[in-house]
Design a protein that fits this description.
single chain; alpha/beta; two-stranded antiparallel sheet; 6 helices; 16% strand
Length: 165
């Protein structure tokens, strides 16, 4: 029995590593096919090194209320209005995110059209942020394991935290 356990655990570990890499590769392939590349992308690692940035959450309010990236400002998607960011200078570095980057890219297009010159879309958005072990906070500013997955289909791309939809 002990020999079987010794064989089982390394095989389980190996399988989980391979499965994780396949999931990540599939996620990035999906993202690369979804983006129109109309807005420059910024990676999670690049964002973490960037100072003086306006971080805008383009998800719906119920998603933002579950959790968001610390320092993010809710601007929404369906009801987004340029007036909601009128206080942000048009030369300010702006990083947008949603669940995976589709909605944030659309808002980015609107900002570019309105004359904002330094707009970026967070590659993989909040799903990539969480999958790379970065914290998200709730409305009280407390770190939370919860992440809104938009729906169960999109939830397949979240491997860390507690899924909420």
């Amino acid at each position: 029995m002990f020999k079987k356990l010794l064989l089982f655990f390394p095989l389980t570990f190996l399988y989980s590593c391979i499965y994780s890499q396949q999931n990540e590769a599939s996620f990035h392939k999906m993202l690369d096919g979804m983006y129109k590349n109309t807005i420059p992308l910024i990676t999670v690692d690049e964002l973490k090194k960037t100072m003086d940035v306006a971080l805008l959450d383009t998800r719906e309010l119920e998603e933002f209320e579950v959790s968001h990236i610390k320092g993010a400002r809710y601007v929404g998607y369906k009801d987004f209005k340029l007036q909601s960011i009128a206080d942000i200078p048009k030369t300010q570095t702006i990083v947008l995110y949603c669940s995976v980057g589709y909605r944030s890219e659309r808002i980015g297009e609107m900002l570019k059209k309105a004359g904002y010159s330094n707009v970026f879309n967070l590659y993989g958005s909040i799903f990539e942020w969480v999958n790379k072990d970065n914290p998200v906070i709730d409305l009280q500013g407390n770190i939370t394991p919860k992440i809104h997955t938009y729906n169960s289909k999109w939830g397949q791309w979240v491997w860390k935290g507690e899924k909420v939809n």
